[in-house]
Task: structure prediction
Amino acid sequence: MSDLPLIQADRAAPPPAAVTTPTGGRRRRVRLLSRTDRVVVALMVAVPLLLVVCLVWLPAGATVLLSGTDWDGIGPVSDIEWVGGRNYADVVQNYPPFVPAVQNNLLWLAALFAVATPFGMFLAVLLDKELRGTRFYQTALYLPVVLSLALIGFVWQLLYSRDQGLLNAVLGTDVDWYGDPDVNIWAVLVAAGWRHVGYIMLLYLAGLKGVDPSLREAAAVDGASEGRTFFKVIFPVLRPINIIVLVVTVIESLRAFDLVWVINKGRNGLELLSALVTQNVVGEASRIGFGSALATIMLVVSLLFITVYLATVLREGRR
Result:
């Protein structure tokens, strides 16, 4: 009689489900999620999804809709006038800062892609060799990445200041690096590239740590030099990292804003698309529809590269 409660308890709590092999043998038991676990998993999925929808996709959708309207953002929603594609036509035909902004964004992309990115990759290759003081160099090179571009602008102001800047003191010149429209974009690109190098260095360093050492050993046995080994063997293996770097570089060139806004609010030679959007949406102009058209153009360009990235990742995952 004393064993009866134990037998009833065993019958009330069925054992965990077992996974069987194709031959019918039991391999291991799998516990089903409890109700609490299911609630926790649902919240972990639902909360981030809700934040993304509310903070990213809904504002993006509203921006696309507002790009076809004429609204100053002050009057009631009922006063919004639908103008179709007129804002886009005005952006291209009747807005002088648009062309210089596109040129500066393309120049920003070219500088990051052709100079800062290869240099970051070169530093990653050097640090991957486990040189003495590697940890210190990694920290020093990555430190600018954790700083905001606004703070970087203030830091480089100490170098570029016309009267008290270190650069003019060393060169013995009197150049207004931030004020002269002929040179300020190049000065800003140096500051932005300084930050971008550390980011690219970290991405490539993480990729190099995951490369199979046997690939290098096989190339060394075949008599390949270090340069040939990298470009013919290692670099193709880093294809996923290369795609990520390409997408990151494009996005960085499009969303560049903080640095030029701190200097002169994106004027006088430092026009960028992001600065034009801010000037029209929250600036003195208060042209919500016009600024939304500029933002939509940036969104479309970004989505093109993100779509290419996602398609490549999915294709790699199916192999």
Remarks:
- The radius of gyration is 28 Å.
- Residues 31 and 124 are 44 Å apart (CA to CA).
